[in-house]
Specification:
By secondary structure, the chain is of the alpha/beta class. The protein has helices at residues 28-39, 53-67, 90-117, 139-159, 180-184, 186-195, 208-215; strands at residues 19-23, 43-47, 72-75, 122-126, 165-171, 226-229. Helix 2 (53-67) runs parallel beside helix 3 (90-117) and helix 3 packs parallel to helix 4 (139-159).
């Protein structure tokens, strides 16, 4: 061991006193992460209005004022689509790419002064296994999630000097409202189970532990990485 630990085993995952902003926290993975961070001691605010850059900056500043700062930003809000490229209109492309990528960049930029000011800020981008591999009929979503992983790596390099760790989560197929259409399609639902080595869909609470890890002191030497939580999907 090269040096002493900067924390005890007991407080490695303690988020007491940490201030977190989570987007897309009204349901699904975002809600589970927000609840999980709070359960580990963090003060958590959910950001609702992601419609334009000015509203994002105002909401970030209001959150920082309310909490006294921002130590953790979780970019979780996202949307998907299901159409082949020739059937995807420009408005769909823009909507999907804007929320899954552009908004994450805007939030990171707005929150950067607060993350830099603290003691070991954390930015967690919720990407997807489709940010690592391709998929038919989801070109805008795949492109946006690949871009989000690229953004994660770029910001990790830029912000390392400020002791801010920037990482991504890449969930596999998890039962949420966004995947309800797939779950209700028996053939698609069975295909996911068949192609997931663990043999089932993931649950939202199974994303909480990885998120808490990335938000905590336990990941103080982890940055620019993608933590894949997919039941083995991408190991094949």
């Amino acid at each position: 061991m090269s040096g002493p630990l900067c924390y005890s085993a007991d407080d490695a995952f303690d988020l007491g006193g940490r201030r977190a902003l989570v987007t897309g926290a009204s349901r699904g993975i975002g809600r589970a992460i927000a609840v999980g961070l709070a359960a580990h001691g963090a003060d958590v605010v959910a950001l609702a209005d992601l419609s334009n850059p000015d509203s994002i900056e105002r909401c970030v500043e209001a959150t920082a004022e309310s909490l006294g700062g921002i130590d953790i930003l979780v970019n979780n809000a996202g949307t998907a689509h299901a159409s082949y490229v020739e059937d995807t209109d420009l408005s769909t492309w823009e909507r999907v790419v804007d929320l899954n990528l552009r908004t994450c960049w805007l939030l990171a930029r707005a929150a950067s002064p607060h993350l830099h000011a603290g003691d070991g800020g954390k930015l967690i981008n919720v990407a997807s296994v489709l940010g690592l591999v391709g998929s038919r009929g989801e070109s805008a979503y795949v492109a946006a999630k690949h871009g989000l992983i690229g953004l994660t790596r770029a910001l990790a390099l830029e912000w390392a000097q400020h002791n801010v760790q920037v990482n991504a989560l890449a969930p596999g197929y998890v039962e949420t409202e966004m995947t309800r259409g797939m779950l209700e399609d028996d053939e698609l639902a069975r295909s996911v189970v068949k192609n997931t080595p663990i043999g089932r869909w993931g649950q939202t609470d199974e994303i909480v532990g990885p998120a808490v890890f990335l938000a905590s002191r336990a990941s103080s030497f982890v940055t620019g990485q993608v933590l894949v939580v997919d039941g083995g999907w991408t190991a094949q």
